[in-house]
Design goal:
Layout lengths: L8 H52 L6 E3 L18 H5 L14 E4 H4 L7 H5 L13 H4 L17 E4 L5 E5 L4 E7 L1 E6 L6 E6 L33 E5 L5 E2 L10 E4 L10 E3 L5 E4 L21 E6 L4 E5 L4 H8 L6
Length: about 350
């Protein structure tokens, strides 16, 4: 009688169970290794951007603008109302809600577009007519180019997308950016005055949405700061930080007049909102901690869950954890507040 050399059903089940256990044990380690590699590449991207900022400053004796603006016509509609200290609005918002006012922002080319020659993208830079708006038809090819230096490997939503206006109508297509320039710090500080618990409110910092010239960070509209203007110290001042497309999609090319930046559907946050055009290229530290589940498009955010990477004015790259105190973040976001 010949003995069978094949596996029995029980033996096959045992082997499959052992393989499943081994896969379950090794998969987290593999995923952790992959995420570690992605984090390293993201830091390298920021380091490359930091070098580009230094080369730009060496060449032009200033840092690039957050985005460039050449006024040619008055705003179409009434001027947006400002939020005055002490008003009820300051208690609810750290930026005013969008308005139907179309504010001109052209030509709108942003800090990343201005850095192209220092990112080994001289040919792409030469294709751009910086005197024409980002949304101009002649800029279509350039603004849809995907740049690896501006894409975090953990950002799963990179690529061309459709920019919408405030009425949710499509404007143009543009490639995304995983990073945003630091507009600075925005705070509403309250203190009790007089009897009855009356409070006095003081606003510190500017609003990206409606006052893109008033930031206290390194980048604003038409800014051209020098290292000498950064009195808080180059190593203590944020330059660029993470804001991936999986959280809010924005064009690397710059600001598109009439366009908006929106919370990406499926983003790991509890709220969904859209902000006005200047937020496309800049973010700031507000009243939320990093990677807060209530973050909105004008906040820095990271796909790395527990850490947000920033490049500072001296070119160093640092990871700030989600548990970092707001006071520390506000101090790092400002250029000359003495902290």
């Amino acid at each position: 009688m010949r003995r069978s050399t094949a596996f029995t059903l029980v033996e096959l089940l045992v082997v499959l169970a052992i393989i499943s256990i081994l896969v379950a044990l090794t998969l987290p380690a593999i995923q952790a290794a992959r995420e570690s590699a992605r984090r390293t590449q993201c830091k390298n991207n920021l380091r490359q951007l930091g070098v580009a900022l230094q080369l730009y400053h060496t060449s032009y004796r200033t840092l690039p603008a957050g985005y460039i603006y050449q006024p040619s016509a008055p705003p179409q509609g009434p001027a947006p109302s400002s939020v005055s200290p002490g008003s009820k609005a300051t208690r609810r918002f750290d930026a005013p809600p969008p308005t139907p006012v179309l504010q001109p922002n052209g030509p709108g080319w942003g800090w990343a577009a201005l850095l192209l020659p220092f990112l080994e993208q001289t040919a792409l830079s030469s294709e751009i007519d910086f005197g024409r708006p980002v949304e101009d038809v002649t800029s279509t090819a350039a603004r849809n180019v995907e740049l690896s230096a501006l894409q975090c490997p953990s950002d799963t939503s990179c690529g061309p997308f459709t920019v919408l206006n405030e009425l949710h109508e499509p404007l143009v297509r543009a490639a995304t950016n995983s990073y945003a320039a630091s507009f600075g710090s925005y705070r509403v500080i309250s203190r009790p005055v007089g009897p009855g618990g009356r409070e006095e409110f003081t606003i510190v910092g500017g609003l990206i949405n409606t006052d893109p010239d008033t930031g206290n960070g390194l980048f604003t509209r038409n800014s051209g700061l020098r290292y000498a203007d950064i009195t808080d110290g180059l190593s203590q001042t944020m330059a660029l930080g993470e804001r991936p497309a999986l959280f809010a999609k924005s064009p690397w090319s710059g600001v598109i007049t009439g366009g908006t930046i929106r919370t990406t559907p499926g983003a790991p946050v509890y709220t969904a909102n859209f902000e006005l055009a200047p937020v496309m290229v800049m973010a700031r530290i507000g009243n939320r901690t990093l990677n807060s589940p209530y973050s909105e498009p004008y906040d820095f955010f990271s796909p790395h869950t527990d850490v947000v990477f920033f490049v500072f004015a001296d070119g160093s790259v640092q990871g700030l954890t989600a548990s970092a105190e707001l006071a520390t973040l506000h101090a790092l976001a400002t250029r000359s507040s003495g902290d």
